[in-house]
Design goal:
Elements lengths: L6 H5 L7 H10 L32 H6 L25 H7 L6 H4 L5 H51 L4 H6 L5 H4 L9 H33 L7 H11 L20 H5 L5 H9 L5 H24 L6 H14 L4
């Protein structure tokens, strides 16, 4: 069986180990620190038998095995020149104010002991370190800013050059052929645009005229209905007493069928349903009285519409006229 020890290790294996050399090996078993790479026994069939450097971006298992875990974290560096007047820090005036020289009479005299002399020496060293540190940080900041600005300018210039660069020959020669008419994307003016504009203006004028007529009719209707508006408290009190009186429906008389009016349905009739609308359209009512009065009602409505068109204004509703006539007759029986 071939030995798994490297050639360099087999050459020195003929010597008899001394007790002094075995003691550290036994002590190594109880140690928590890793062994040195030179003391590891690497077999010849191992990839690590010959030390071959890996490329910087190697993604192999061997390369990842060499990566060591970085414990802890690096603190965020302090922004020394973050304020607006930070450019004054490396000047002599700012440094003299930040670390002024001693001005007392005691500091000007000779040191009384070696401890005082050591303290003065440390104070001078701190002033010099602060001065050199601020100046070096300012120089490094300017250097980094110039590099960053140069990189940004170069990147913008490269992007602009790439955007304005002509088409490459390989792209031009390998591009598929496209019909010239397909590439023509210009929107041509409509030759019938003036005719369409005149027609649109006529339609708009008709719509505006219809709206104006409807608005005029609404104003006329409001003017006609304004006669019954309540405008003061006396009229409001009289209307409330009349509408909410105990004999309000009895004072209305009898309905068209001859019965006494007891509720609003007897006075105003029930709302017309869809079935009644269809029957009125076909002139086929269940009630004989309605069949006899339908033509007259339609004629009256037609006459009202014709009169409104001729006069250009709105007229009172038929039911309102009948109600006004009924009210006037009840108030004046002599009429």
């Amino acid at each position: 069986m071939a030995s798994l020890i490297p050639r360099a290790a087999r050459i020195g294996s003929t010597a008899t180990p001394s007790p002094s050399t075995t003691t550290p090996a036994l002590a190594r078993l109880f140690s928590s620190t890793p062994t040195a790479p030179a003391q590891q026994r690497i077999p010849p069939e191992s990839p690590l038998f010959i030390n071959v450097p890996n490329p910087p971006q190697d993604q192999s298992i061997e390369a990842k095995r060499e990566l060591k875990r970085v414990r802890g974290f690096v603190p965020v560096p302090r922004r020394v020149f973050a304020h607006r007047d930070s450019h004054e820090k490396p000047t002599e005036q700012w440094l003299s104010r930040a670390a002024p020289l001693p001005t007392s009479a005691k500091s000007q005299a000779e040191p009384g002991s070696h401890i005082e002399a050591w303290r003065r020496k440390m104070a001078v060293s701190r002033r010099e370190n602060m001065r050199s540190g601020v100046q070096n940080l300012w120089a490094r900041k300017r250097l980094l800013d110039s590099k960053r600005l140069a990189a940004r300018t170069a990147k913008l210039a490269a992007n602009k050059a790439a955007a304005n660069a002509p088409e490459r020959d390989d792209e031009r020669l390998t591009r598929g052929s496209i019909n010239a008419g397909t590439l023509q994307t210009t929107v041509l003016p409509d030759p019938e645009r003036f005719t369409s504009a005149l027609a649109s203006a006529q339609r708009t004028a008709a719509i505006m005229a219809t709206k104006s007529e409807a608005r005029r009719d609404a104003i006329q209707t409001l003017y006609m209905n304004a006669r019954s508006f309540i405008v003061n408290e006396a009229e409001l009190e009289a209307t409330v007493n009349r509408e909410f009186a105990d004999n309000h429906f009895e004072s209305k008389g009898n309905s068209s069928a001859g019965y006494a009016i007891q509720n609003i349905w007897d006075l105003e009739e029930a709302p017309m349903s869809v079935e009644n609308m269809m029957k009125e359209l076909q002139n086929n009512h269940d009630n004989l009285i309605q069949d006899m009065t339908t033509d007259a009602t339609r004629t009256t409505r037609r006459q009202k519409q014709v009169a409104e068109e001729l006069t250009g204004g709105k007229m009172d509703d038929i039911r309102q006229q009948m109600h006004d006539n009924t009210t006037s007759k009840q108030s004046n029986p002599a009429i």
